[in-house]
Design a protein that fits this description.
Length: about 325
């Protein structure tokens, strides 16, 4: 793939302030990334959209607003363009209807209004890419492995290593259990059912995930495209959690452990890094810091595993 004509990004940080699910470092993660995109990777600020739930934010990172921003970015894309989505916030797993799914769960991110964006939604977005454009997703959230449905695993559980370090830093997991999401939605809809899809359709309607709007047979139509240009750098495996560090836990700073590890790698290596190199180096950073149960993963085509992260221009 050639270096992009345009470089566009959507950056989403959800701290869920003043709720029992509050995190601390997610907005900092995407603000830091915004600066790096402009200074290192040649992004124009006018092509970087920031969505956070910070006090006073005009456009909140709801499920509908995030999907609208991503859809608009893809609609603007042409061959050779480089698209980037960085999400820092809670993730979750929901019961899977797919037979033979490894964990019998599907992955999703949790926007500030709990209107989940699922692995099927990300598959549909990747399939919409114009030929020759790429979409790199960096998801610093729990259960983020496999967040693009049916994308090929390049670095996953089989590559996991442990150093048996008992000193795991104090942190908050970036996960909201399925049961908590179900209870929250039931309180909004006042419907007595354990079928989460019913709640999503009742409360969010056409803004709900494709996972809940489409019949099971139609969901299977979203196959991966051979050699597609979707690239996922996940903060952890599908069955793991990602860490959020408060100022007390992070030495005065708040950040997501994976986002911070990526920034540390980029700062230490000014030259080009492949997607595979970046994930493996970030994994090494987390291991050295004591995060034994968090293994970043890479999902993409064989070719894109060795491609330069965000097609960084040569110095």
């Amino acid at each position: 793939m050639d270096e992009g004509k345009k470089r566009m990004a959507v950056l989403v940080g959800c701290n869920y302030p003043n709720t029992r699910n509050e995190l601390h470092g997610c907005i900092n993660d995407v603000l830091t990334m915004k600066e790096v995109l402009v200074k290192r990777f040649g992004f124009d600020l006018s092509h970087v959209q920031l969505l956070t739930d910070a006090p006073g934010s005009v456009v909140l990172p709801t499920g509908a607003n995030i999907k609208k921003a991503l859809g608009h970015m893809i609609d603007q894309a042409e061959a050779g363009d480089v698209l980037f989505f960085h999400y820092s916030g809670h993730g979750t797993r929901i019961p899977s209807a797919k037979p033979g799914h490894p964990f019998r769960q599907d992955e999703a991110i949790v926007p500030c209004d709990f209107n989940l964006i699922t692995d099927l939604d990300f598959r549909q977005l990747v399939n919409r890419l114009p030929k020759g454009a790429s979409l790199t997703i960096l998801s610093d959230s729990c259960h983020s492995g496999g967040l693009i449905d049916r994308e090929k695993e390049q670095i996953g559980p089989n590559a996991a290593t442990t150093n048996n370090n008992p000193k795991v830093p104090s942190h908050s997991p970036k996960a909201i259990p399925f049961e908590s999401i179900l209870q929250h939605l039931a309180s909004l809809t006042n419907i007595s059912t354990s079928d989460i899809g019913t709640h999503f359709l009742e409360f969010f309607g056409s803004d709900a995930s494709l996972k809940f709007r489409l019949p099971p047979l139609e969901r299977d139509l979203f196959e991966s495209i051979n050699g597609d240009e979707g690239i996922l750098l996940s903060g952890c495996q599908a069955n793991e959690t990602s860490a959020d560090m408060s100022p007390h836990e992070g030495g005065g700073r708040s950040f997501g452990a994976f986002s911070n590890a990526v920034q540390m790698v980029l700062k230490e290596h000014s030259g080009q890094l492949s997607n595979k190199q970046l994930v493996m180096m970030a994994r090494d950073v987390l291991q050295a810091q004591g995060f034994e149960q968090q293994h970043p993963c890479l999902y993409c085509s064989d070719q894109n595993a060795g491609s330069t992260f965000l097609w960084q221009p040569e110095c």
